[in-house]
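User: tokens in, sequence out, please.
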């Protein structure tokens, strides 16, 4: 392991690997990533990994648009599949406020030459014949929307970074970060220490613990997040194309095709916090017990909108942790009180934003 590096990235999830990759693309090849366990541990590995380009904040829209267009380039460059599916995404508005939000995003898309536009009910039914569009005021379509493979994307970034000279050390937990009088840092591990002018905290579920080593308190809190995957649905099995995903934020659920069934996830109001006093060090690729009753209202709204969901059996349930900032936006940038310490954590739509955040961090 190197004893000196231009930057040390702490955390081997999709965001940490994206930052490492983008640093090497800008010529910083003397960089190291340290991961406490295996790559993708924590939140990355179990993500639904949906991708979408538009956001209420214009700059985040631009970051997300960059990320969406990066995946196929990353595959071509590294030879590592990212499992990219882009059958498009449908966004539904049941309320006047949601319609106003979607129309603002459509105007923003025109301004920045992004592909996001309104479609008629007839066109929406052609795109997704299993959806009942009764009661929908407005339907927007994003042709490049879809999903990716979380492990494939993370490993593609890792391959690309290694090809340019970066080092990645798995099963190497950081035990300390110590500021030096000259403004540099010593990053301590059981395998040796690294001297660096830049520490980048991309530790995800453990970002709070890593920050505490430097005397920093990050306002982050993990919650449980659930989605389920259905058994094969005959109507989908009979199709010769992939269905677009559906985002119904008034209904507080999302769904997309997974295999020959559907994946249905919820952002419920009855949130369950987890590890409020600190993420367990031994946690990695574990999940929580199923708790579908807590999202039953969301599931029923999804069934009303896509009735075949109600007739399908449930193949598996994923209930895993996500870590949130107070406003659900990334805690991003240099820590003002410290020299050479950078944070990138609390990213909820990680597979829509990781590429843009990695690029922005590298260019900072």
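Assistant: Sequence out:
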């Amino acid at each position: 392991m190197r004893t000196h590096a231009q930057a040390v990235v702490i955390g081997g999830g999709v965001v940490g690997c994206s930052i490492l990759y983008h640093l090497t693309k800008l010529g910083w090849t003397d960089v190291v990533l340290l991961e406490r366990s295996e790559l993708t541990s924590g939140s990355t590995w179990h993500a639904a990994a949906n991708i979408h380009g538009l956001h209420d904040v214009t700059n985040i829209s631009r970051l997300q648009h960059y990320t969406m267009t990066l995946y196929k380039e990353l595959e071509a460059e590294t030879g590592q599949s990212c499992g990219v599916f882009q059958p498009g995404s449908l966004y539904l508005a049941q309320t006047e406020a949601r319609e106003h939000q979607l129309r603002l995003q459509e105007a923003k898309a025109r301004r920045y030459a992004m592909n996001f536009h309104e479609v008629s009910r007839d066109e929406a039914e052609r795109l997704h014949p299993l959806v009942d569009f009764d009661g929908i005021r407005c339907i927007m379509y994003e042709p490049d929307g879809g999903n990716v493979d979380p492990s494939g994307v993370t490993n593609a970034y890792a391959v690309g970074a290694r090809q340019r000279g970066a080092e990645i050390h798995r099963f190497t937990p950081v035990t300390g970060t110590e500021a030096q009088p000259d403004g540099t840092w010593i990053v301590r591990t059981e395998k040796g220490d690294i001297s660096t002018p830049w520490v980048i905290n991309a530790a995800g579920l453990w970002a709070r613990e890593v920050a505490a080593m430097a005397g920093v308190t990050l306002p982050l809190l993990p919650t449980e997040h659930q989605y389920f995957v259905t058994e094969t649905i005959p109507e989908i099995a009979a199709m010769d194309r992939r269905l677009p995903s559906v985002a119904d934020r008034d209904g507080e659920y999302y769904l997309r095709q997974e295999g020959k069934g559907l994946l249905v996830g919820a952002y419920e109001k009855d949130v369950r916090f987890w590890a409020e006093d600190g993420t367990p060090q031994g946690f990695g690729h574990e999940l929580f017990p199923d708790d579908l009753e807590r999202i039953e209202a969301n599931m029923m709204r999804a069934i009303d909108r896509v009735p075949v969901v109600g007739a399908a059996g449930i193949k598996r349930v994923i209930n895993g942790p996500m870590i949130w900032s107070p406003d659900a936006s990334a805690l991003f940038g240099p820590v003002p009180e410290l020299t050479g310490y950078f944070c990138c954590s609390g990213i909820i739509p990680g597979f829509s934003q990781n590429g843009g955040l990695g690029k922005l961090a590298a260019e900072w």
